[in-house]
Amino acid sequence: MLDFLLPFADLGLMMVSIVFTVSLVPTVSSQFKTKVCSVPLTSSVVTSLGLVAIVLFEVSLGLHIAAVAGLISAAMWAVVAAQRVLYGGGKAVR
After folding, report:
1. Taking the model in full, what pTM does it have?
2. Closest C-alpha to 86, from 26, 32, 24
3. DSSP code of 55?
4. Distance CA 92, CA 11 (A)
5. Which of 28, 39, 55, 59 has the fewest CB atoms within 10 Å, measured from its CB?
6. How far apart are CA 48 and CA 43, in angstroms?
7. Band of the pLDDT at 65, cuts 50, 70, 90?
8. Cα–Cα distance between 46 and 88 in angstroms, integer?
9. Where are the domains of the chain?
10. What does the DSSP 8-state code read for residue 91?
């Protein structure tokens, strides 16, 4: 039914991963500046591991470009998890 999308699957999934990664940059940057992480640890860890699982499926399907972009997105979520561990969720120090 959606076979017309198959030739564009690799690039389409790559573009979606890039949009997700770019949209996460302000969060990572803000948390770095304030040294406070508002994202729950469970959310960031589960998202990162879920993205790694998706990357494995993409590699198995030969979608290597999408897999690289997905791995970058998973790494960004791992950074958010690390920020939660390092900074905690307390009040910002000014």
Report:
1. 0.87
2. 32
3. H
4. 40
5. 59
6. 9
7. very high
8. 17
9. 40-94
10. P
